Write a sequence for this structure.
């Protein structure tokens, strides 16, 4: 498959997200800029300027129109809707299922603790006062990645120490917790029906959990730290992207494009394919909601959109 | 404060009674310490036992009559004065006036007596008389042995089971040790082409690394306090050797002895830097001093374990086992000796000495224990030499770096000694370098083919490194069979059975691998194991392991298993993998003709093996298929339950999104807007007519 190369960032990509229909792809990077592209041909629709620091995360709500996107503390509505200032960097953010509640977590930096904040967009007072209706402190280990649960009742958060916790959106208490990973969770993504979540961890593995019970279902092992993982909407496949720490990059093979996205069979936990092409570690992967393509954003600042060949859909491991 | 000693002194007979008495009153006791007054003299104070300690007894002295006594005494004097001044001598005479055949000699100091014992004991005066020298006090010791014989306590026999158990694996799998988790875990695997099978795995089995004994019987592990040896089916601890701070070990080829080195323990009186142990009894046999461990092993063993030798400044010391004493009681003085090594097939030592004024440099082959020089080869204008023995001791190659007269550059020759031919003829292979440059080819690596008569040389400068293969033929010629140029290689690894080999570019050359069949010098396969740091053949020559050790590279630590032809079988990633060592096999018990017979009937045997292989393959795929089937069933069951729950929550979802059904992408076709967008796809310039 010939990938579409999106060049719109000057620094490494931190996150990419499709909108609900999949026709738009949002990419954000450390260069303070957020871009949105047509996923069908890679043409850039526009750019959101205004952040002053690296943009770590993006989410787009699912209401057909108008579209809102959320980046660290700035919910945009095609033009900026609101700006919420925080005391330390916002590491992860997301709209809940209804699109009315935003959650974001702040980093443990400069003396400030890690907090998980909830804002209700229907209450303009909260935005004006910059007062979340609920703030949950995380004393032990900071949150590195988080997604909403199926019905907006809780947020599933991954921590620096490998823990995964369910934080209630109403009370802030921890409903469930598991510790299956031994090192930092780099990314959590949900399946398209929100029943499962997949985690990507620095301990070189990725795990599949049930979103409600946090039961550990599958494990996918590699030899490199995994930066991001996603679940295919239509096949029993998962894709993982990773690499090493940026510092150690020069010690791997300098052959061009050796950083690969790896495809695993979700039931058999076996790797069946790899896609090369990035010049640096892959920081984020995402499936198109229709499952016919996927995208990956890398440390090299490029985002690549790949449309699967027909053989991909026919492929089956012997069973 | 004691004056007791002077009490026993005889009264001073020369004392003159007329003079006034200057002595202290009878009961005067002074308050000065003897030590203060005459400390230095006291140290030399004759001890009661002194006299006897310096006396030696010499037996097997010729019995002579009085007329020849004077001559005998002169001869004895000449021999024994070497060790010190003889202060006293006694030649007991028998009733017939001739000497009894044993004499007593006294030296000035006990050290001299000991010296005499060490060196004169066993001295052959003539055919019938070999001196036996002992210290007099020894007789005392032996006389005083308890009359009652106490049977030494019988130590219970420690049955360690079948020490060769691993050789009885029905599928003939070889074992290898793996250290991983940066040394925290050590495991022993049985090598199966499908997947390694764990035989044993322990945490903190060793503190640094492990070593196998030469025949594979023992696994040695290192600890702060010493070495431990493990073996048998369950790898029980067989033996322990206490040597604080041990850092290096070496086994004798016969597996009877192990040599340990520790830089910590060494005192002048008790040499403890290097200790040689008897493996079966656990006893310390002998200790040696050692200045530096730069060229370990310091002691080199002969192939049968009968001798071991080491080289010090201008000296070659050869010791024999089991006495651990110097062969012929003295070291060989070889002025300027630079290097030596044992033949792996016979008790022959090769050593070389550099030029000395007008005496050219030379390589000498010496037979042990006779010390006969069976071959000497003079070399001219030598800068350096390296000795390379072929595995069976059939050939010796001396790599000679020379600066020919009148030139500045260094030229390299290989002097090939044919050990199995009469008078050891020597042939020379010159490494001609690039005619353009003044310097000759730099030799990167050299290796003999085991079990064969070929050798491989890597020469040149990166990136133009060449691999040359030579064959030492019976007719006195050494033929260059083939040269591969522009190779990415810095090391040569022959299969232990010969014929096949791997050229590897380790570490800085990023793990390039070339698998070569030297019977016709073809490249069977070219591959790569990125950043490989080691290559290890299994003892049978069927498999090769390439590995990336955590000690040399911090990422991608793994070991890969290949067939001897270069087909990759397995990639085994191990967290912080450090070291893999194959377990050596003991030499085959089959006689040569039995091996020949098996090779002849190979077709018959291979049929049986192929059938076995096919069965196990289909079993494996069947297992895999079954496993996958059950995994899929579990997964399906889970998904169905999840989907059911999802359905139940549909109402809630509709509510959250204001009645809009968003479950499927096409749930809301009515709401879709159709948009036509034009994309620029292609530009084509079509020239029009004329």
């Amino acid at each position: 498959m010939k990938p579409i190369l999106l060049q719109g960032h000057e620094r490494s990509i931190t996150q990419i997200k499709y909108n609900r229909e999949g026709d738009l792809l949002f990419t954000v990077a450390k260069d303070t800029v957020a871009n949105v592209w047509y996923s069908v041909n890679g043409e850039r629709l526009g750019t959101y300027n205004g952040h002053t620091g690296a943009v770590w995360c993006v989410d787009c709500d699912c209401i057909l129109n108008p579209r809102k996107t959320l980046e660290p503390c700035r919910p945009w509505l095609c033009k900026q809707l609101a700006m919420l200032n925080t005391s330390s960097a916002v590491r992860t953010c997301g709209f809940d299922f209804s699109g009315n509640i935003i959650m974001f977590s702040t980093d443990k930096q400069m003396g400030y603790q890690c907090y998980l904040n909830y804002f209700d967009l229907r209450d303009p007072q909260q935005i004006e006062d910059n007062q979340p209706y609920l703030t949950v402190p995380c004393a032990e280990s900071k949150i590195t990645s988080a997604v909403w649960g199926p019905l907006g009742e809780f947020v599933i958060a991954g921590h620096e120490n490998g823990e995964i916790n369910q934080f209630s959106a109403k009370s802030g208490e921890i409903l469930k917790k598991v510790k299956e990973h031994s090192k930092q969770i780099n990314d959590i993504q949900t399946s398209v029906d929100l029943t499962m979540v997949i985690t990507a961890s620095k301990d070189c593995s990725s795990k599949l959990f049930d979103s409600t019970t946090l039961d550990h279902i599958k494990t996918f092992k590699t030899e490199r730290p995994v930066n991001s993982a996603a679940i295919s909407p239509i096949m029993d496949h998962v894709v993982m992207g990773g690499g090493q720490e940026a510092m150690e990059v020069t010690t791997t093979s300098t052959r061009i494009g050796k950083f690969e996205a790896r495809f695993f069979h979700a039931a058999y936990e076996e790797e069946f394919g790899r896609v090369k092409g990035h010049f640096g570690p892959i920081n984020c992967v995402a499936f198109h909601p229709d499952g016919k393509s996927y995208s990956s954003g890398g440390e090299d600042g490029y985002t690549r959109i790949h449309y699967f060949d027909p053989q991909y859909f026919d492929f089956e491991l012997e069973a | 404060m004691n004056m007791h000693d002077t009490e026993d002194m005889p009264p001073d007979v020369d004392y003159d009674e007329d003079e006034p008495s200057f002595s202290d009153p009878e009961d005067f006791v002074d308050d000065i310490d003897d030590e203060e007054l005459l400390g230095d003299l006291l140290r030399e104070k004759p001890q009661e036992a002194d006299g006897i300690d310096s006396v030696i007894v010499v037996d097997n002295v010729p019995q002579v009559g009085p007329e020849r006594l004077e001559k005998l005494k002169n001869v004895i004097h000449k021999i024994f004065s070497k060790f010190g001044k003889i202060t006293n001598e006694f030649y007991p005479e028998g009733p017939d006036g001739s000497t009894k055949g044993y004499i007593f000699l006294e030296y000035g100091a006990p050290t001299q007596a000991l010296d005499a014992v060490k060196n004169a004991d066993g001295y052959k005066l003539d055919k019938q008389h070999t001196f036996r020298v002992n210290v007099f006090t020894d007789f005392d010791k032996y006389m005083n042995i308890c009359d009652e014989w106490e049977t030494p306590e019988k130590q219970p026999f420690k049955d360690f089971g079948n020490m060769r158990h691993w050789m009885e694996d029905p599928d003939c799998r070889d074992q290898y040790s793996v250290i991983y988790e940066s040394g925290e875990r050590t495991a022993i695997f049985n090598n199966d082409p499908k997947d390694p099978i764990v035989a044993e795995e322990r945490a903190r089995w060793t503190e640094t690394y492990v070593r196998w004994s030469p025949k594979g019987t023992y696994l040695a592990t290192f600890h702060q306090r010493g070495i431990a040896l493990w073996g048998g089916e369950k790898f029980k601890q067989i033996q322990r050797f206490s040597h604080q701070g041990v850092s290096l070990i070496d086994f004798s080829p016969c597996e009877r002895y192990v040599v340990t080195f520790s830089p910590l323990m060494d005192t002048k009186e008790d040499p403890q830097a290097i200790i040689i142990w008897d493996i079966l009894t656990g006893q310390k046999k002998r200790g040696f001093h050692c200045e530096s461990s730069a060229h370990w092993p310091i002691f080199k063993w002969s192939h049968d374990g009968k001798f071991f030798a080491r080289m010090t400044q201008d000296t070659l010391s050869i010791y024999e086992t089991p006495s651990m004493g110097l062969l012929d009681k003295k070291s060989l003085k070889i002025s300027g000796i630079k290097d030596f090594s044992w033949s792996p097939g016979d008790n022959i030592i090769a050593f070389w000495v550099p030029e000395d004024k007008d005496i050219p440099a030379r390589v000498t082959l010496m037979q042990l224990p006779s010390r006969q020089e069976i071959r000497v080869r003079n070399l001219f204008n030598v800068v350096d030499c390296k000795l390379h023995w072929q595995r069976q001791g059939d050939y010796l190659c001396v790599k000679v770096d020379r600066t020919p007269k009148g030139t500045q550059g260094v030229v390299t020759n290989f002097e090939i000694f044919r050990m199995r031919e009469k008078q050891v003829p020597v042939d020379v292979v010159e490494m001609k370098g690039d005619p353009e440059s003044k310097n000759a080819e730099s030799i990167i690596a050299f290796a003999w083919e085991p079990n064969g008569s070929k050798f491989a040389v890597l020469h040149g400068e990166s990136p133009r490194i060449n691999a040359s293969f030579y064959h030492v033929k019976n007719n006195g010629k050494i033929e260059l069979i083939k040269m591969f140029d522009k190779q990415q290689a810095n090391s040569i690894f022959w299969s232990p059975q010969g014929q096949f080999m791997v050229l590897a570019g380790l570490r800085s050359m990023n793990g390039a691998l070339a698998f070569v069949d030297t019977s016709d010098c073809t490249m069977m396969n070219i591959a790569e194991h990125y950043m490989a740091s080691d290559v290890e053949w299994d003892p049978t020559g069927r498999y090769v392991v390439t590995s990336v050790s955590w000690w040399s590279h911090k990422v991608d630590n793994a070991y890969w298993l290949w067939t001897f032809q270069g087909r990759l079988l397995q990639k085994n990633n191990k967290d912080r993998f450090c070291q893999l060592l194959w377990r050596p096999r003991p030499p085959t018990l089959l006689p040569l003709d039995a091996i020949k017979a098996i090779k002849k009937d190979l077709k018959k045997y291979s049929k049986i093996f192929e059938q076995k292989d096919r069965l196990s393959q289909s079993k494996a795929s069947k297992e895999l298929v079954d496993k996958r089937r059950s995994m899929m069933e579990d997964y399906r069951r889970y998904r169905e339950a999840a989907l059911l729950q999802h359905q139940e929550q549909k109402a809630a979802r509709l509510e959250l999104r204001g009645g809009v059904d968003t479950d499927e992408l096409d749930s809301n076709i009515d709401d879709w807007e159709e948009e036509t967008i034009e994309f620029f796809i292609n530009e084509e310039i079509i020239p029009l007519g004329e």
